[in-house]
Design brief:
single chain, alpha/beta, 10 helices
Length: about 210
């Protein structure tokens, strides 16, 4: 998937479910609950239990979803994620070498950045889009809006502080999409195995974003 194909996909979906699973089966159930909602973009963090195996399993089980990897810190992790079948890649930071490795494998890389300098550097290095993280620490949707004048041509995906309630505000402010983790997977629901609640929250998120 090249940059343009990725951008078309995220413009359609507007949101990415970020899964951090302490156990393999938990990760599979989390993904199943998200898939049941109609949300198609699912990121498996590299801090999850057996992330490579989980990505490969989800690719087979949920062919209508697009399964990616996140929290990738080095080249080895990027290469392993690509081998596992990850269809997009997120990192919390910008490192040109990671972007290069991903681009050569024809897998979109979305590096993390925060300041205007970091965002521009990431985009110029070949990022498919740029993850703005942690966005709540620098003003939330107001920060995304303030970037639109000078950097409106760079597709931004804010994470870290996005909620079901404010997700629309971020897209309205100019974000191409948003990423959510704990907001979709409340601790109480996870502890109780209440996967129906996860599905309901994802459906509510999608409904909120339809206003865009």
């Amino acid at each position: 998937m090249n940059r343009e194909e990725w951008l078309t996909l995220v413009r359609q979906q507007r949101c990415i479910a970020v899964i951090r699973a302490t156990e393999f089966e938990q990760g599979r159930r989390m993904a199943a609950a998200i898939a049941a909602s109609g949300l198609r973009l699912i990121e498996i963090t590299w801090t999850s239990d057996r992330p490579s195996a989980l990505i490969a399993s989800l690719r087979a089980e949920f062919p209508s979803c697009v399964i990616g990897a996140g929290t990738l810190l080095d080249v080895a992790a990027v290469e392993t994620a690509v081998e596992a079948g990850a269809q997009f890649l997120f990192s919390p930071h910008t490192q040109a070498e990671l972007i290069c490795v991903a681009t050569n494998a024809n897998v979109p890389m979305i590096p993390g950045a925060l300041s205007p300098t970091e965002i521009v550097s990431a985009w110029q290095a070949g990022a498919a889009s740029v993850k703005v993280f942690p966005v709540q620490a620098v003003g939330g949707s107001a920060y995304i809006h303030s970037l639109q004048g000078p950097l409106g041509g760079i597709p931004l995906i804010p994470t870290g502080g996005v909620t079901l309630e404010n997700a629309y505000e971020f897209v309205q402010a100019g974000a191409i999409a948003i990423g959510l983790a704990s907001e979709l997977f409340p601790k109480a629901a996870m502890a109780a195995g209440n996967w129906a609640e996860v599905t309901e929250r994802a459906q509510r998120l999608l409904q909120n974003l339809k206003k865009t």
